[in-house]
Design goal:
The protein has two domains: about 15-165 and about 225-315, BirA Bifunctional Protein, domain 2 (2-Layer Sandwich), CATH 3.30.930.10; about 330-415, Rossmann fold. The protein contains 15 helices and 16 strands. It has helices spanning about 15-30, 45-50, 60-65, 80-90, 135-150, 170-180, 190-200, 210-215, 230-245, 290, 305-315, 335-350, 365-375, 385-390, 410-415, and strands spanning about 35, 45, 65-70, 75, 100-110, 120-130, 160-165, 250, 260-270, 280-285, 300-305, 330, 355, 380, 390-395, 400-405. The longest helix has 20 residues, at about 15-30. The radius of gyration is 28 Å and the shape is elongated.
Length: about 425
């Protein structure tokens, strides 16, 4: 037997309706905000992530699935969706389209890391990206879209945390302050933090090592180094969220895990899924399009992990809508009646009714059991007498009531008695 690869998961028929509910909520939210779907390749040239995500990030240094294809090209399974969306924006000349361009995706991503609850090596994200708008209103709209999506799922046990990590101009001064602070502590910090010290000291704040976290707790805060423009931008974002009734907490330690972020960053965090509490996160990335060879195009977005959302919903007892069940199951007793049942069922299907019949040559008793397991709302058995009269007795499984209905009238009866 060949087993499933570690860090991946099958979605079984008994679970898929939950996924469909979450995905439908994502699509409905996108439609409310006039956001249109995009689909980018599962793999990209590795350089895209080196330049876009950042060479000093954990994603690039530790987690990417990178391989050489038969043409000798370095290819990477996408570890996140934003870099591919930005590449698509540039390559297809979408800067010349009406802006802002608002796009969403529901897609698999891949990271080689230790599997745990809500964190797999193959995982799925719902993401929204907005290209071309630099205003605080764009930030607030994207955050509000994320909040709307989470509310649509019925999620309440969650908090929004926001921060600003400034622009290149004010971050340069902040990086100098970080180096001054961290330099005396380097001997106490992990090897990764020592590597990041020269390349990107901001990344040191995101270290998960306990000994490093104790040191970074006393580090200077980016909010104290914001330039006037970045400070005004952040204050306006907060005012807009207040006006929308979106509650938030300012967390000066949020830097997010990818290098392309600038100014506003945010996370929706829960305490109900263990240590990995972020179920949705994002922010502004005004320099990414330029970094990848496009023009100076501002952008902002977020991504939500579907596995984490499903885990959160299950852990907090949020009810899912019931899975779809057949409207009717039509059983036959012999070859002739099974043939008629097959014809009736497929006529109903052609009219848009969910209907089922026997494909296993089961006994009538076994067919009833199967229909009951499927949750069919109505069940009918066609015997010789029914076939001769051209009628069936439709039994409503919820209360046991029986109605005699002509073959030709079954569709109308089901439509009237939904």
């Amino acid at each position: 037997m060949i087993n499933i690869p570690k860090g991946t998961k099958d979605v079984l028929p008994a679970e898929s309706y939950k996924w469909q509910f979450v995905e439908n909520a994502a699509r409905q939210t996108a439609a409310q905000f006039n956001i249109r779907e995009i689909r980018t390749p599962v793999f990209e040239h590795t350089e895209l992530f080196l330049r876009g995500v950042g060479e000093t990030t954990d994603v690039v240094t530790k987690e990417m699935y990178t391989f050489e294809d038969k043409g000798g090209r370095s290819i990477t399974l996408k570890p996140e969706g934003t870099a591919g969306a930005a590449r698509m924006f540039i390559e297809n000349g979408l800067a010349n389209s009406p802006l802002p361009l608002k796009a969403y995706y529901i897609a698999p991503c891949y990271r080689y890391e230790r599997p745990q609850a809500g964190r797999l090596r193959e995982f799925h994200q719902f993401g929204i990206e907005v290209f071309g708008a630099s205003s605080p209103e764009a930030d607030a709209e994207v955050i509000f879209a994320a909040s709307t999506f989470l509310k649509k799922l019925g999620i309440k046990d969650i908090r929004l945390e926001i921060n600003s990590i400034g622009c290149k101009s004010c971050r340069a001064e902040y990086n100098r302050a970080l180096k001054e602070y961290f330099r005396p502590h380097l001997g106490e910090m992990c090897a990764t933090c020592n590597e990041r010290f020269e390349k990107n000291p901001l990344r040191m704040i995101d270290c998960k090592e306990e000994k490093c976290k104790a040191i970074t707790a006393g580090a200077p805060k980016m909010l104290d180094y914001l330039c006037p423009d970045c400070r005004a931008h952040f204050e306006k974002v907060k005012c807009l969220l207040d006006s929308l009734g979106v509650e938030y907490t300012v967390n000066p330690d949020i830097v997010r895990g990818l290098d392309y972020y600038t100014r506003t960053v945010f996370e929706f965090v829960s305490t109900s899924i263990g240590a990995q509490g972020t179920v949705c996160g994002g922010g502004r990335y005004d320099g990414l399009v330029s970094e990848l060879g496009g023009g100076n195009v501002p952008a902002i977005g977020f991504a939500a992990g579907l596995e984490r959302l499903l885990l959160l919903m299950e852990n907090t007892g949020i009810p899912f809508p019931a899975a779809a069940v057949p409207e009717v199951y039509v059983a036959g007793m012999d070859d002739a009646t099974r043939a008629k049942a097959f014809a009736i069922v497929n006529d109903l299907r052609a009219r848009g009714v969910s209907a089922e019949c026997d494909l296993m040559s089961r006994s009538v008793k076994a067919q009833f059991k199967y229909a009951d397991k499927l949750g069919a709302k109505y069940v009918a058995v066609i015997g010789g007498n029914e076939l001769e009269r051209g009628t069936v007795n439709l039994k409503k499984m919820a209360d046991g009531t029986v109605s005699e209905v002509a073959f030709a009238d079954i569709y109308g009866f089901l439509a009237e008695n939904k």
